[in-house]
Amino acid sequence: MGKCGIILLLLAAFAGFIGFKVKNALFEVPELPKLEDTWWGPRDPSREDKAITPFKINVAEDVLKDLKHRLDIIKPFTPALQGTKQDYGMHPDLLQKIINHWKNKYDWREREKFLNQYPQFTVSVQGLRIHYIHIKPKNVGNKKVIPMLLLHGWPGSVREFYEAIPHLSKPQEDFVFELIIPSLPGYGFSEAAVKPGLGAAQMAQLFKNFMDRLGFQKYYIQGGDWGAIIVQHMAQLFPEKLIGVHSNMCFVNTPLSNMITWFGAFFPSLVVTSDDEASKVYPLACKYSYILQETGYMHLQASKPDTIGFALKDNPAGLAAYIIEKFSTWTNKDYRDRLDGGLQEKFTYEQLLDNIMIYHVTGSITTSVRLYAESFNKAQMSMGLSNVPVTVPSGCARQTHELNVPLEKTLRLQYHNLVHLKDYEAGHFAFLEIPKVMSEDVIEFVKTVEKMPKENIKSEL
Q1: 451 CB contacts (<8 Å, ≥6 apart)?
Q2: Within 10 Å of residue 428's Cβ, how many Cβ atoms?
Q3: What is the domain-level CATH number for residue 432?
Q4: Residue 8's pLDDT is what?
């Protein structure tokens, strides 16, 4: 063989090697990671109290007096630059209006009664006392009782579901939900891990064990924000436990899905299903610019969570500004250009301050933001879960004003059994913004799955 033949042979071998690597990167499904039942809590594992304990929110009066003092001594805010609205973060006039409402109109003891209206409990799982709301249906008759686990995210809490609970707990023609709504570990009234490593994948395992502890063998799951990531991981890791998974932030991040999305930037007609979908996803430059504007917090929380925790834990005004800002611009990016942040278009100050109070009175802001550092790291990424498909029956609700709206084509690459997909004019906090609509979406999804032949569901598992 001459020199030319050798060179051609080497080039062919190199091209074959590159092709093999590209094929693996685009299509290979990695093995599922084997997660240990890590003990995350501060107590001795041999003395774990497995009892389910009734729980009521009852904040000590000293905590409320301290909060009042801190709100009373706030120094004047730095004036905004001329002509700005929410461009540089929350406008000081808007924050002052919220603080005045907090001091003069917001009544925690009344709000405490509101938050305690549903039965709450705690139970120990992997060393952590997990707080949860548990609503069991009454007088069900011949209706099928369907367990539904609902998971919130950051900067939310179980408060996001309160307006949806009456809609979700309403009996349907053939079934009624049994609702289980926990606070994520390190959020609100749930204990936080005392050692590193409790990321989204480990939380998926913890909530599988949580449902086992409560006696549920098969159930539906629903999530948004971090809750969406956790329920996706539950569907990937423990499909045998699930009847179906619903998400209002279906997440896709694979090399192939990204390639298709980028390809659509040049030839959108080849990847979109409608002009309406095209307007939600493209032009990519504008969408990515918006994401960059809104996700500076993510880099900070993924790299230095405790630093921002120190800044916010004993600073109620700062905590309110940091969190409530997200309920403005994540609900609709156009609210950035309004002095009032558009907040009362979709929410009440009581709703927003309830959520802030849950973080403040429990001192959980630091432990909540650690979830970013525990999930955006080499150990989590090396699991390859983003390349593992979801095979259980799945439902996705897409919101027009969500920070990132995935294409249907890429969703179907991740969710192999996507039986329900609908779009809504809403933002990131969909269950708080449009509780009735989101509840109806979940109910419609469950009705679809319940009508599916059981052998088909099993074959997908």
Answers
A1: none
A2: 24
A3: 3.40.50.1820
A4: 45
Whole-number Å distance between alpha carbons of 153 and 326: 13
Q: Residue ranges of the chain with pLDDT lower than 50? A: 5, 7-24, 458-461
The structural domain count of the chain equals 1
In a domain, 140, yes or no: yes
Calculate what percentage of the chain has a pLDDT beyond 90: 89
Q: What is the pLDDT of residue 26?
A: 62
Place of tokens 């033949």: 5
**Could you give the C-alpha distances from 183 to 114, 189, 193, in angstroms and in order?**
17, 7, 13
The one-letter code for the residue type at 421 is L
Domain that holds residue 283: 58-460
CA quadruple 270, 271, 277, 279: dihedral sign = negative
Residue 196 forms part of a structural domain: yes
Residues ≥6 apart with Cβ < 8 Å to 188: 131, 157, 158, 358, 359, 362, 364
Tell me whether residue 151 is in a domain: yes
CA 278 to mean position of chain CA atoms: 25
33/42 Cα distance (integer angstroms): 26
Q: Does residue 131 contact residue 189 with C-beta atoms inside 8 Å?
A: yes
In a domain, 11, yes or no: no
Q: Annotated active-site positions, please?
A: 225, 372, 428
Element (H, E) at 54: strand 53-55
What are the beta bridge partners of residue 421? 396
CA torsion 190→196→198→202, rounded to 10°?
Answer: -140
Give the span between the Cα atoms of 195 and 56, in whole angstroms: 27
Does the global pTM surpass 0.85? yes
